[in-house]
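ARCHIVE CARD
Drawer: 12
Card no.: 0347
Subject: one protein chain, sequence and derived structure
Cross-reference: see card 0346
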Amino acid sequence: MRWSKKRVSKLIAFILTSFALLLSVADPQKQLTVYTPQASYSIEVFERHGQMYIGAMDLLTPFGVTLTSTRGNVWTLHIGKVEASFTEGKETARINDVTVNLGGGVLVESNRVLVPLNACFSLLSGVLHKNVDFHPSGRRVFVDNAGTHFTSELKKGERSSLVLNFSQPVNPSIHQEGNKSRLVFTHEPLISDLANQPFDDKAIRSLNFSEENGTATVTITGDASLNVSLGSDGKTIVVQTLPAPAPATADLNKATPVAQSTPDASITPQPSQPPGTPSQNQVHGAPVYFVMIDPSHGGPDRGAFLSDKLDEKDLTLAVARKLKTELQDRGIAARLLRDADVDLSLEQRAELTNAQHAGMYIAIHAGAPGEEVRVYTPALTSISSSSEQANAKPGHFLPWETAQAAFLSQSQMVALAVAGELQKRDIRNLNLTAPMRPLNNIVAPAIAVELSADRSSIQDLLSVRIQSQVAASVASGVARARAQIEAAK
């Protein structure tokens, strides 16, 4: 059978087209990430006519922009007193009385206004009247000086370590690739003026910073495998060479003892990990799961005056520290929102928890009168807002007062599990709901645990035994609830 030139040309075109399709499927979705001091969001990037485009509403809606009118081929958006008008086919837009160059023609697809990617700088600057920093190569935008900086310090020794200190809490996904450790920052506005930093060390050779497709990546290269640990405050990451393997001995031939079953068969304890040690899932790319423990009050805010010598702020910190230890003993990473006598506002407590992407939030309180432990779940005051929030699209800002809505059922699951564990230890408890802050502002399962006692028995709260029993009950409940939540996904 002879092939004509025309048939050969068609075959080559088919092969090239198929290859291009395979490459497009393999490539990750192109995105632009916008960072603000409050939150971050990502939007899709499209290719049209050889140029990158984004949706104008996708870019501006998180800031409160609404589409208010269309007239012919003119589309008008409003945010407060600012009006932005786009005309299909035109390479400029009008923001109030100012003409803004977009760098390409406006497109309209399915009633959706598309503008060139590079126009995000002029649009955000003109609409928000705030400082905007656009990194086009990495497709990242920083609004109102949002940005997390970091420093690196190499500590030489028998096992060299590289300490990274960040200006804000971070929680990257960690990827181990031979002698390289890649820290990928998807939600954090990490920036750096230094692209590559070599080290005069035999074990840790270099640090590289790069931006691509709406994310930032820090790559540490060594001469051998490296271990990455995230500090309990989320602001420190330590990269260290792994210790040399122990020499083989005859003991390896001995039988391994069978692990004893735990008293509570429904809870499977995991091997204990040091604070900040990444879990196996994190090494494979998933952010580390941890519980944020919030000892209420602090600093000049003493909380309840339980006695002449006992403030609520001191009791909550003591119980929080015990709870952290109990969680770590069960293989669950935990952090303290405050580990000193400092004052944090309710907004700061929610913002710090959300910024670090906590897997669960537990507030610790203490008060009187009472003879029980009270376990609170959030009570959202707006049912309609809660329903809207539960169905909110990823990438959009969350209504502050109902941010908890999408996690409310999981919060109730945690509260029931904790109450059940308290009951097992014969600790009287009440399961309550209340519109408490910052519970309503947390974007994760969230509960509050309050220890209480009558005035005549207030000193009982100082008992290490009672504090430890409550901490152990809460930790067991968290372990049970986490397993139930994971199973339901």
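Annotation on reverse: The longest helix spans residues 464-488. The longest strand covers residues 204-212.
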